[in-house]
Write a structure and sequence with these properties.
It is a single chain. Helix content is about 40%, strand content about 15%. The protein is of the alpha+beta class and about 325 residues long. The strands form three sheets. A five-stranded antiparallel β-sheet has the order 1-2-3-5-4, covered by helices on one side. A hairpin with a 2-residue loop joins strand 7 and strand 8. Helix 3 packs parallel to helix 7, helix 5 packs antiparallel against helix 8 and helix 6 crosses helix 8. It starts with 8 loop residues before the first helix and ends in a 6-residue tail after the last helix.
Length: about 325
């Protein structure tokens, strides 16, 4: 279980009083995730999620928690942080900053069909537009600056052919500038396990802790690389068309975005290949962590390097 900091019911009860959510009736660790400690918390007032932040500092949290609250108030199905006695959305618990947010309805769909991809495309565009007037800003924390820092650390773990591909892809990416593309706050981690479906409707968008400013097209490419890739590691045309059509029904892509699509698909693949390599080979201590297999995004990157074309539909 990805619980780095254990919390008992007796330890949680006095701490949670500051959020005025009522006494805790049940506390259960959440097995998914590799960045933070998460628990389901039931009180006599409702169901919530407790998060203890293992890497993010108290100074970094207002951006993420504020973004979630901003989107929730704009009508998106995002977690709404609870405020404590001092009007803050977090407080220290066992030496770590911790928050309590509303628990959302639904469950992840790990084998999505066209209807799920259509809903996801529209939701991604809605999120982009709803965040336009969010007053805070920060760069994508796993953007190109992070790639440059991490690549030399994971390089020694790779065979020669993968080292060559990684070096070449970094050179290609840095020869293209994505800054001129339409941009704003992006979620940057809209994988299937971060979306909760309540029937065919999205009931929850969760885990905003990689959000930051970047090209909206990058966020869309992250979504496509997870939602529209089939078991053979290639794009499923029907799911792709459903997702892209729904996205553009809310926000149409510009000509520059259509032309940049191949390189941005590669950028999104590279980001997750690097992060999974980092989590696998350079993990931090935890009770039990299950890092994702880096080969999935290595193969997706290789596929895009061979086949991706500008979006024309």
């Amino acid at each position: 279980m990805a619980v780095f900091t254990t919390v008992s019911l007796d330890e949680l009860q006095p701490w949670i009083r500051q959020f005025h959510l009522g006494p805790v009736q049940q506390l259960q660790g959440i097995s998914s995730g590799i960045e933070n400690t998460n628990y389901f918390v039931d009180t006599d007032q409702g169901q919530y999620v407790l998060t203890l932040f293992e890497k993010l500092s108290a100074g970094e949290l207002p951006f993420y928690l504020g973004l979630m609250g901003h989107l929730a108030k704009a009508g998106l199905p995002c977690p709404l942080p609870a405020m404590n006695n001092e009007g803050a959305p977090f407080s220290n618990l066992k030496g770590k900053p911790a928050s309590v947010v509303s628990r959302l309805a639904g469950k992840s769909v790990m084998q999505p069909g066209e209807v799920h991809c259509s809903a996801m495309g529209a939701m991604t565009a809605r999120l982009h537009l709803a965040a336009v007037d969010y007053p805070s800003s920060q760069d994508n924390p796993r953007g190109p600056k992070w790639w440059v820092r991490v690549a030399p650390q994971v390089m020694p773990f790779l065979p020669a052919d993968e080292q060559a591909m990684l070096k070449d892809e970094l050179e290609v990416q840095f020869s293209h500038r994505l800054e001129p593309l339409p941009r704003g706050v992006v979620h940057a981690d809209l994988f299937r396990d971060n979306i909760l479906f309540d029937g065919e409707k999205i009931g929850g968008v969760i885990d905003f802790y990689f959000a930051g400013a970047d090209a909206w097209l990058f966020d869309l490419a992250v979504v496509v690389n997870d939602w529209c890739i089939n078991s053979e590691g290639t794009l499923d045309a029907r799911r792709l068309n459903a997702l892209m059509s729904a996205y553009q029904s809310v926000r149409a892509l510009s000509n520059s975005e259509r032309q940049a699509w191949p390189i941005v698909l590669r950028a999104a693949s590279l980001r997750f290949w690097l992060s999974r390599l980092f989590d696998l080979h350079l993990p931090r201590p935890g009770e039990l962590i299950h890092p994702h297999d880096p080969s999935r995004f290595r193969d997706i990157l290789h596929y895009h390097r061979q086949t991706s074309k500008a979006w024309t539909s």
